[in-house]
TrEMBL record:
The keyword Transmembrane applies. Residues 68-292 form the ABC transmembrane type-1 domain. The chain crosses the membrane at residues 9-30, 72-94, 115-135, 165-188, 227-246, 271-293. It is found in: Cell membrane. The keyword Lipid metabolism does not apply. GO terms for cellular component: plasma membrane. Belongs to the binding-protein-dependent transport system permease family. Keywords: Cell membrane, Membrane, Transmembrane, Transmembrane helix, Transport. InterPro entries: ABC_transporter_permease, MetI-like, MetI-like_sf. This is Sugar ABC transporter permease. It is a multi-pass membrane protein.
Length: 303
């Protein structure tokens, strides 16, 4: 009787969240698969099923393939650069003070630095987009102004107007925005490592780099693995920054799948075609997440 009452209470608490999730999250996903097989324009009540025609058109769409290529480049570069910088900063904040009497010391004011690094992450993505658009302004932007101030006035790139630079300028903003969060994540992992283990390594004569590569990274591997998945998903999105800063230009050099999907749905009224893109991106994201989790799986180290 008591177990039955507990079951009713659990069901009562879970019913509302499950219903809301089903209606507002799961249901749209399922509907997208059906809409991808139609020519629905978004506002019309008339829908004609056209089978795989949207997917056939998608396979020959050069802009979509360009967007997907940009997403794949982000998929490689964004996690590598962000995790690399965040790991370096987190380890330096906790170990840059060097060994003293068999101890690993962090830098003075490490807490303040963590707050500074984390600050960009709490900013609205709209603020970040507008802020960096102004920084990259070729006429009166902060970046070109700094180049002029140090005597490099002859080097005045159009950061967001040059096809060769725009993509990398957007990537830099994505790294700047996310690195602080992962500094905090990795710092939490480093602080969970028993001090006795680090002290033993110092007493055995291990250098700072040996402690980093042979002790720190293996012991916070689960944190790194989680960060890789999160950043991989972010790399397959990047919608807001692209929309605000470049609109996919110049000449689709910064185009990404999510923004091209948005354009087709809400600018061109091609919801069926956009849903086909959504299905492809969903499958790609799911497959890459599963691959990443499997490829980075290691035997858990207990400490």
């Amino acid at each position: 009787m008591r177990n039955r009452q507990q079951g009713r209470v659990i069901v009562g608490f879970l019913a509302a969240p499950v219903i809301l999730y089903t209606v507002f999250v799961a249901s749209p996903y399922v509907q997208a698969f059906y809409i991808a097989l139609t020519d629905w324009r978004g506002l019309s009540a008339e829908v004609e099923v056209i089978g795989l025609a949207n997917f056939a058109e998608l396979s020959g769409d050069p802009v979509f393939w360009k967007a997907l290529l940009n997403n794949l480049v982000l998929l490689v570069t964004l996690p590598v650069v962000t995790i690399g910088v965040a790991l370096f900063l987190a380890f330096m904040l906790n170990a840059a003070g060097g060994p003293r009497s068999g101890e690993i010391r962090g830098v003075r004011g490490a807490g303040f630095y963590r707050v500074v690094y984390f600050f960009p992450y709490i900013l609205s993505i709209a603020i970040i987009g507008v802020l960096w658009t102004n920084i990259y302004n070729p006429i009166n932007g902060l970046l070109n102004g700094a180049l002029r101030a140090v005597g490099l006035g002859g080097i005045q790139p159009s950061w967001l107007g040059d096809e060769k630079l725009a993509f990398w300028a957007v990537l830099a903003v994505l790294v700047w925005n996310g690195v602080g969060f992962y500094v905090v994540l990795f710092t939490a992992g480093i602080k969970a490592i028993p001090a006795s283990m680090l002290e033993a390594a110092v007493l055995d004569g291990a250098s700072r780099s040996q402690i980093f590569f042979r002790i720190t990274i293996p012991l916070i591997w689960e944190n790194i693995r989680t960060a890789t998945v999160y950043l991989g998903i972010a790399a397959l999105d990047a919608f807001a920054v692209v929309q605000i800063m470049t609109g996919g230009g110049p000449n689709d050099s910064t185009q990404v799948g999510s923004f091209y999907l948005y354009q087709n749905a809400f600018s061109y009224g091609r919801f069926g075609y956009a849903s086909a893109m959504g299905v492809v991106l969903f499958v790609v994201t799911l497959a890459l997440s599963a691959f990443t989790l499997r490829a980075t799986r290691k035997e858990r180290i207990e400490f």
